[in-house]
Specification:
By secondary structure, the chain is mainly β. It has a 17-stranded mixed β-sheet that branches. Strands 18-19 form a two-stranded parallel ribbon. A hairpin with a 4-residue loop joins strand 7 and strand 8. The protein is globular, with a radius of gyration of 25 Å. The relative contact order is 0.11.
Amino acid sequence: MLRSSLTPLAFALSATMAANLYGPAFAASGDRIGDAVVITNIVMADFAKEERRLSRGDNVRQDEIIEVNTDAQGEFKLDDDTKLALGPGSRLVLDKFVYDSDKKTGSIVMEMAKGAFRFITGVASKPTYVINTPNASITVRGTIFDTYVLPDKSVWVLLHEGAIEATGKRNVCRVLDRPGQMMHIAADGTVTGPFNWAKLPDNNAVGFDTAFPFVINSPTIDPNPQLTRSQIIEANLADEPAQKCINPHPQIIPGPPVKTRKAQAPQKTPPKKKIATRRPKGDGGYGDDCPGCMTGIGIAIGAGMGGFGGHRGGYGDGGNRGR
């Protein structure tokens, strides 16, 4: 019998290197998927009920829960260059990380359970990201945005760059592609917006500075802010009706974008006519078992998603920073 000359440790390292060289990084539960780049005060990580206090340079793992103390802050960078900032009292679950560095594809899923966050997409193709909140799922396109999960589990979303789509529990999807404006996700999963801060539902429930701390103090991962506090608070962009998503299922990775911002109206197909077939003489009429009287049901599931422009609603130069 042939025996491997590699020690168990060397064999494991060789397998890891081969996976990195020849295929996507299919991170298993507990595998490293990124690193902590800034840790202020106490930020804890919990994997399989084994807690550890994070420091700058520590790795973070798939299926790990990141919990930030009420006087703390954490900033992280994942292996696809996704960047995350977690504000005081926040809680994040790193659910899934599959990333092919050669093809820039994969599947990245995380859950923002409570508190304040800033999310900056990395180099993976944008529809691969799914960010779950208590009552909705968010997909992104070249995007920088902040979220705040209120105590009643409703959510505020503030867009800085790019575009997002949010689908609530009722499977109604809305688009936010106007930087400086906000989206509201109610506790029951109803998604509404866009709103200026002055018209955001329940905007007196929590102070702006508490909900969006990274507007007040720019994180290290995003040192050059797109918008200032005064620009956001004083924004008076024209009200527009909420735009519906083309693909209302953000948990399904969409296909190539369609070059349109509006969903195409579905063509109406005329109902099939029943073709009556007379039974042989003596049956007394038409029966239900005739071959032409069948009713067919067809179900088509499409995964196309409309592309979004870099509309800034009056802020900046309308460019996308390539995220």
